[in-house]
Amino acid sequence: MSFQEQLQRLRKEKGLSQEKLAEIIGISRQAVAKWEVGKSYPDIARLIALSDFFKVSIDKLVNDYEENCRLSIEDNKEDYINENIIQFLCTAKKATYAGKGAEVQSSRPNSHDLQYTEGNLKYIDTYLGGEQFAGEEALWKDDMPIWVMNYNGRIICEGFSISFLKEALALVSKEHPYRGPMVYQNGQYKYHCIVNGKFEWFHGYEEIFFNDTKVYECIFHGGCIK
Fold first, then answer.
1. N or C: which end of the chain has fewer CB within 10 A?
2. Domains of the chain, CATH where assigned
3. Which whole number is the average pLDDT over 14-29?
4. pTM for the model
């Protein structure tokens, strides 16, 4: 079922008009109408609001997200971004936080820092906090910054598993080199990740459910450095 079909079904099940849903979400009726006929698509913030309001996960709400929000890495990238750099990013992610890599010396008071280097490429992930956290991942080539991703997340309630989060993040791929895969499930845990944009400029959202209860969420965005 497409997003527009899902939205219409959920709205009608609650007995809401387009006007009323628009009022609840804080947008215009015309925007809802365009979503329902497939003429436009909500951004991450609106998808989160719809997911929270209808009490459904983003992947259930956006069943055809692979067509609407999937990563598109095009062949005509800037010269300094190529397949080898994206592969390096994935390797670095798997070797650091997702792979339970050792932290290096803090760059700021009480920060957690992880680093991976290969030839002239360097990856640094630094974050603050724990249950509520914020951080930044970045790439350097020949000591010049070329790409960055900022993230901000929180543990919502009991049931969260850091081991499951790292398990999902370890599945990062060249086709989706941000956080984890779009959907991953292991037992009672389910991970979702949705991205708008391209490697050069993007924003996204990830969440974890435990027994159909959302226990974790994280927003991220970034792009190339010029």
1. C
2. 3-67 (1.10.260.40), 83-224 (no CATH)
3. 92
4. 0.72
